[in-house]
Amino acid sequence: MKEHITTISFFKYKGFRQQAWAFRMMNDAHAYIARTDGVFFYKLMGCGRNEGFNPFPDWSAYALLLVWNDEAAAETFFETSELMQLYSKNTVEHWTIYMKNISAKGEWSAQNPFQKSTTLNPDNQLIAVITRATIKVRKLYRFWKYVPTSHLSLKGNEGLIYTNGIGEVPVIQMATFSLWRDRESLMNFAYKSQEHRTAIEKTRQLDWYKEELFSRFQPYRSLGTWGGVNPLDKYLK
Questions:
Q1: Using an 8 Å Cβ cutoff, are 181 and 125 in contact?
Q2: Which of 34, 127, 131, 153 is 20 to 30 A from 7, alpha carbon to alpha carbon?
Q3: Count of structural domains, the chain
Q4: How high is the pLDDT of residue 146?
Q5: Does 235 fall in a domain?
Q6: Is residue 232 part of a domain?
Q7: In whole angstroms, what is the distance from residue 189 CA to residue 16 CA?
């Protein structure tokens, strides 16, 4: 039985020429993806500075989120598509994670694009989280003023494998992607961290968002490198 899967890819660029090409592809890649079979939903996004939740973009890193009708369509794209050949030619490295959805609540561009998987592996304890939001313009200052405090508990967190801020539009349309060793590590951050609990309370009280979505995934395949290594290689053997 076929079911949706989600992939997220990160691309690293070096030097002005590569970075200028990457910025142009934020527009030009739409035409390539429109010709790709099996794509249910996608987002081309930039990354925050210092691989963190930062309102200022890192011009050397970008991300591509894709939701596929099935895994075969994803494999065909990453192995044979003209777009991926262009990315490979113009990047210094790239990394792709295949994921199955565990749960998703909220909307992204007026829809919830993530279909809950019926084939999760109970022996795979890894969890990926994507949170995204469109921030109300009148709340931007208060939101970004509090962000550094809300993420203090991420530093030195042993259960955190990787995290990065991503987004469609800097400052206004933001998202986070994080990878955790297991559910316990994620829950410790989400509910035992005073800073993060306060952030949740402020979200409810101050009504920062026009639209938001919170989703969890089970990563099950990791291709390529980031920082010279495959961050999930030792977890997925």
A1: yes
A2: 153
A3: 1
A4: 54
A5: no
A6: no
A7: 37
113: nearest Cα among 177, 66, 77: 66
Say whether pLDDT at 202 is over 70: no
Going by C-beta distance under 8 Å and a sequence separation of 6 or more, which residues neighbour residue 31?
Answer: none
Domain extent for 20: 5-224
Rounded Cα distance, 66 and 189, in Å: 27
Residue 40 corresponds to which tokens in the numbers above?
């249910």
Residue 111 counted as domain residue: yes
The token pair at 3 is 């079911």
Residue that the structure tokens 């561009």 belong to: 109
Q: What is the pLDDT of residue 195?
A: 54
> Which pLDDT does position 151 carry in this prediction?
54
Q: What is the mean pLDDT of residues 156-168?
A: 86
State the Cα–Cα distance between residues 233 and 104, nearest whole angstrom.
Answer: 26
DSSP 164: E
pTM of the entire predicted model: 0.89
| Single-letter code of the amino acid located at 234 | K
Which residues does 198 contact at the CB level (< 8 Å), separation at least 6?
149, 150
Interatomic CA distance for residues 228 and 125, integer angstroms: 24
Q: Give 101's strand partners.
A: 116, 217
- Dmax (CA) for the chain in angstroms is 48
Residue 209 lies in a domain: yes
**Spatial separation of the C-alpha atoms in residues 118 and 10, rounded to whole Å:** 27
CA distance 118 to 3: 8
Handedness of CA 211, 217, 222, 226 (dihedral sign): positive
CATH number, domain of 147, equals 3.30.70.100
